[in-house]
Amino acid sequence: MPQDDQRQTTVEAGAGAAQNPGSAGVGAEASVDPIAETLALLTAERDELKDRTLRTLAEMENLRRRTEREVADARAYAVTNFARDVLNVADNIRRALESVPADAKASADGALKGLIDGIELTERDLAKTLERHGVKVVEPQGQKFDPNRHQAMFEVPNPEVPAGTVVQVVQSGYVIGDRVLRPALVGVAKGGPKAAANPADAA
Q1: Residue 171: beta bridge partners?
Q2: Contact between 187 and 152 (Cβ < 8 Å)
Q3: Which CATH architecture has domain 135-195?
Q4: Which of 65, 67, 74, 155 might form a disulfide with 190, Cβ 3.0–4.6 angstroms?
Q5: What is the pLDDT along the chain (203 residues), one digit of tens a residue?
Q6: For the whole model, what pTM was predicted?
Q7: What angle do CA 171, 124, 103 make, to 5 degrees?
Q8: How do the domains of the chain map onto residue ranges?
Q9: Residues in CB range of 130: below 8 A, 6 or more apart
């Protein structure tokens, strides 16, 4: 009989466990805190909005800088086409002065001297006016040939100067700001010693 009592007690315990199956797992899974969940969502939303704001500010700053650069370029190079046309006038004035022989210019007096002086004054005023608007003349005589600023028209055999040196200027060049408005037309030496390397270029 004691074995029957023990078996009955075991069956009752099992039945009790079957009637309340969740009692053994109480506390095994913690319930989600709604406040913590809401805080996490708000934090994520805040971070997203902050990132968007920073991106927008960066884009606005880039736009501001680009606009300032475009305005500065427009101001600096607005007269480019006009200046390029005026260079023809400067060339004609220079040709007029060069057409007068040196001895005739030296012995000129009266009306002829006044005419020559007036043309020279006009040339100087025109150069100052162009320079006031950012247009400067390029006189590369004796400089190393620079394909970005000069246009080689011919080569001149000259062993006394380094090869690639500008030995003759056919037509003056002009720059506006840091841009070439018109390259100088030049003659370049050939056959001389090689130009010494520039330390800055070597570095």
Answers
A1: 185
A2: yes
A3: Roll (2.30)
A4: 155
A5: 444 555 454 444 444 444 454 444 444 445 778 898 899 899 999 999 999 999 999 999 999 999 988 888 787 788 888 998 999 999 999 999 988 888 888 888 888 888 999 999 999 999 999 999 889 998 899 899 999 999 999 998 888 888 899 999 999 899 998 899 999 999 999 876 665 555 444 44
A6: 0.60
A7: 75
A8: 135-195
A9: 83, 86, 90, 136, 137, 174
CB 112 within 8 A of CB 146: no
Distance CA 142, CA 161 (A): 9
Take residue 52 and report the two structure tokens written for it: 């968007």
Written as one string, the DSSP assignment of the chain is -HHHHHHHHHHHHHHHHHH-GGGGGTTTSPPP-HHHHHHHHHHHHHHHHHHHHHHHHHHHHHHHHHHHHHHHHHHHHTTHHHHHHHHHHHHHHHHHHHTS-HHHHHH--HHHHHHHHHHHHHHHHHHHHHHHTTEEEE--TTSBP-TTTEEEEEEEE-TTS-TTBEEEEEE-EEEETTEEEEPEEEEEEESSPPPPPPHHHH-
